[in-house]
Sequence to fold (417 residues):
Amino acid sequence: MPFTSLTIITPILRALEEEGYTNPTPVQAESIPFVLDGEDLLACAQTGTGKTAAFAIPVLQRLHESHVHGEKRRIRALVLTPTRELAVQIGESFTDYGRYTGVTNTVLFGGVNQNPQTARLLRGVDIVVATPGRLLDLMGQGHLHLRDIEYFVLDEADRMLDMGFMHDVKRVLAALPKKRQSLFFSATMPPEIVKLAASILHNPKKVAVTPVSSTVEIINQHILFVDKENKNSLLVHLLKDKSIRNALVFTRTKHGADKVAKHLQRCNIKAEAIHGNKSQNARQRALNNFKAQTTRVLVATDIAARGIDVDELEYVINVDIPNIPETYVHRIGRTGRAGSKGTAYSFCNSEEQAYLRDIEKLIAKSIPVIDSHPYPMLNTEPVPAAPEPRRSGSGSPTRPQAKSSDKRWSRRPERSK
Ligand code: AMP
Fold:
């Protein structure tokens, strides 16, 4: 079923097409019609299922349709989310999907100077995406109020509870108008969350989708500890295996993606980089080459990889470990689609071990380590705790290592320059 059968307005359909989305994910197909009908929604869906667009698309549509031309923009929609990374990602999604609607959004989170945020609020905005603490702070200082909210989204409710934000969430709820449409998203539904949902929602429609973890479980995952400066060589070594017909390689930065692609090209491996600094045309061309298998390796940043859907992609290689654990799940979820087999290799240097611990916490398993490769990690400086409060892993810096059963790594070919 294509997006066009969901009565989505043309400006949004156009943006979705540009994102490369053709069909809604299950949570989108189920939720969007309810939200467009004005119903409250209780959705049990994890990150990675497409849940952001499931609320962003219909909220954008309803705001666009009811906007009075010439009227100063008031905050009519609020999305509350537990972390700054999620807030930023959600803000970007609203911007991406809403780029032809004129509907505006801004993101509020703590840990940064509030002045740019308050200046943006002064200009008037339709949608606020916020973490609870900064939102309450700015409300307390009189920089915004929630009296005009028509749409309220509580994202990752169970995570809010885990992170101790329940009190703050309740304070925000108390400031919302009684008459509003509420959308509630949570990956799990423990009793406290069910109780919270009941206090927020009015006769909600219920939607539940299969958790991403079931996808993650069918992917063969491996960790390779390696020093930063040897990551490119390890990648080349890995790609000597001709059974890797194509691979999607992830880097954290655009610059990093370019550097990796150039290194591979120098080693006669057909590679292209795809990231936000490239034109839409250049990105599409690179993607087409990859799909046609004229390019063997596509090196992408997370943002550029959004919406990339390549059938029969067997390998994902993380040259950098993402600092947001959910990003890892997104990345590796590009392979192993529709029950086909998939393999994910992740290169981890000493500084990234804290991120790795957070990932293993999220996926609730320890990823097997391949330690018999030609570039073992020599720099094993003690690792500081992860920067975000909720991210601080609890394990010791040198984690107990599950051994990988991937035997091909025991050979030690010559180092490539
Ligand atoms: P989310 O669960 O909202 O974090 O989304 C997971 C990923 O799926 C994001 O990278 C989205 O850009 C991508 N995505 C969301 N909806 C679609 C769709 N209908 N088709 C393809 N990709 C999508």
In short: The chain has two domains: 3-208, 219-409.
